[in-house]
Amino acid sequence: MRTLSFITLLAAFIFLSGYALASPPINISAEELQMLRTRAAQGNALAQNNLGLLYDLGDGVSQDYAVAQQWYAQAAAQNHAAAQFKLGLLYANGHGVPQDYAMARQWYEKAAARGRANALYALGEMYVHGQGVPQDYTRARQWYEKAAAQGSADAWGWFEKAAAQGNTNAQFYLGSLYEKGDGVPQNYAEATKWYEKAAAQGDAEALFSLGLMFAIGNGVPQDDVRAYMWWSLAVAHSTDNKQKSTATQRDGALTRRMTPAQIAEAQRLAQPCQAQQFKGC
Asked: What pLDDT, in 10s, does the model give residues 76-86?
């Protein structure tokens, strides 16, 4: 039972750790190490992954990336997500194997498919730096979005930095994450704040989302006039099917519960709001 408990604790450590070099010592005893070897040799994927980590870190054993790769590979073949991610790291860094970004990407994608947040972030990094793939900030952002939704602090840091620098996509996405509570406690006030920043740059999706916040009363007082105003602005800044769907949303239940005077007031407010670049509306 002691060994099983140790393996479980080690598994939790691996889940929380990101890159092996940043990991603290595990301090495994000789008895625990021997029992871990036995379970790994018997085909236990968790034990194989944990043993690979020890060789990766050089904790309780001499550091040996090649041996780490062998144990990670056995666990990864059994769809162990942490091992798949660590195997990707070895290939990306050329530790114990020739550096091979294509192989790194392959293993990151397998781990990402199983919801591994650090693998999602690592894929974003590959596209930012053009490592084995064409440099593509749009694809990078897509992977960062998925990582942030899984609670990746690194991805959150990227979004917060980009949003603070005025990146409209990042501002809108942060608003969306706070509104839904994806990877962060749900916070309508924060969602509204980031939507307003993106809306101030004329982002149609942020304009629509602000309208929805006012229509429902999430994070702001429920206000049909403001909802109609924001949706009218979103219509003006949208095209094609998005424009039609936004107009349909505005002209549906919202319009039916408003008086002609309220609609006229919303239309009146939209003009100065746009003139002042959507600030203070």
From this structure: 999 999 999 99
Q: Which residues contact 41 (CB under 8 A, 6 or more apart)?
A: none
How far is residue 219's CA from residue 191's CA, in Å, rounded to a whole number? 8
User: In angstroms, how far is the first alpha carbon of the chain from the final one?
Assistant: 63
Instruction: Indicate the domain borders of the chain.
Output: 1-111
pLDDT band, very low/low/confident/very high, at 149 (cuts 50, 70, 90): confident
Taking only the tens place, the pLDDT of each residue in 175-194 is 988 898 877 789 999 999 99
Dist. CA 108–CA 86, nearest whole Å: 8
How distant is the alpha carbon of residue 206 from its chain centre?
Answer: 19
At the second CATH level, the architecture of 1-111 is Alpha Horseshoe (1.25)
Cα angle 102, 106, 145; round to 5:
105
Q: Please, what's the largest Cα pairwise distance for the chain? A: 80
Amino acid 184 reads V
Spatial distance between the Cα atoms of 220 and 54, rounded to a whole number of angstroms: 51
Cα–Cα distances (Å) from 260 to 77, 214, 256, 266, in that order, read 65, 19, 10, 10
